[in-house]
Amino acid sequence: MKDAMNTFARKTLSTFLLLAIWEVAARLGNFPLILPTFIDTAKALVESLLSHDTNVLNYMRETCYSLFIGFGIGALIATLLTIFAVNTLFFETLLSTLTSALAPLPAVAVFPLALMWFGISYTSIIFIAAFAAVFPVAVSMIQGFHTVPHTLRNVGRNLGMSRLELTCRILIPAALPAILAGLRNGFSNGFRALVAVEMVIGAATGSGGLGWFVMSSKQNLDIPLVYAGILAIMCVGLLFEALFHWIEEKTVKKWGMLN
């Protein structure tokens, strides 16, 4: 408990220090169209929260909804591919080839393909978020499965488990730390790609999530609101980072699988 309080105090102090540096640098530079003060940004954020038309919470809700759908699809595809790969040599080779070729590819690089296939639509946003998530999840899952000791595998086979039972009851629990790490990386990748694509799709449709909120504020030269939107994006990222940390605490750390 004491360590947790000390950690919280250090994080709080460092946050206030960074905000103070921001405020001083903005006042000394005196370039409001480039770097507004933190106070002006905070005021713009509060005004947005109180506004009906430009309420940042509505844009945040839109982004989170799209992110859940895209990440869910990507994680499901990655899970199915990995389960097939860990039980079939052909699918293992196929997944290895796909991840080697596509994992290093930035999701925004396939955005032109999404536009050709789905047009300027919500489907393109979901596709990019899913694409960004699928390969980090798949890579971490397959690496986690490969680190499972053969002793555990042999125990499952000796108990007469089928391949699917062995995967669900032995491999997945044993590889849970790697799986959670992959889900966290996939979620982060999907979130970054989603916000970037929202800026483009939003400019064409006039609607969207936080990415469009930032872009539209920039087009209106409301620079404090631009920074407020970026802060909102950071808050969403921190919120889900805390969620993954909580899941880790309740699972792999609680069960002694991580120190």
Quick gist of this model?
The protein has 259 residues and is mainly alpha-helical.
Can you characterise this structure?
The two termini are 17 Å apart. The chain has helices at residues 2-29, 38-50, 56-87, 89-102, 111-118, 122-146, 150-158, 163-174, 176-205, 210-219, 223-250. The chain is an all-alpha fold. α2 (38-50) crosses α11 (223-250) and α7 (150-158) packs antiparallel against α8 (163-174). It is built from eleven helices and no strands. The mean pLDDT is 85.
Q: Can you tell me the residue ranges where pLDDT is under 50 for at least 5 consecutive residues?
A: none
Mean pLDDT across residues: 85
Percent helix among the residues? over 70%
**Helix and strand sequence:** HHHHHHHHHHH
Query: What is the molecular shape?
Result: globular
Evaluate the radius of gyration: 22 Å
- SS content category: mainly alpha
Question: How are the elements arranged and paired?
Answer:
Blueprint: H1 2-29, H2 38-50, H3 56-87, H4 89-102, H5 111-118, H6 122-146, H7 150-158, H8 163-174, H9 176-205, H10 210-219, H11 223-250
Helix pairs in contact: 2-11, 3-4, 3-6, 3-9, 3-10, 5-6, 6-9, 7-8, 9-10, 9-11, 10-11
Features:
259 residues, mainly alpha
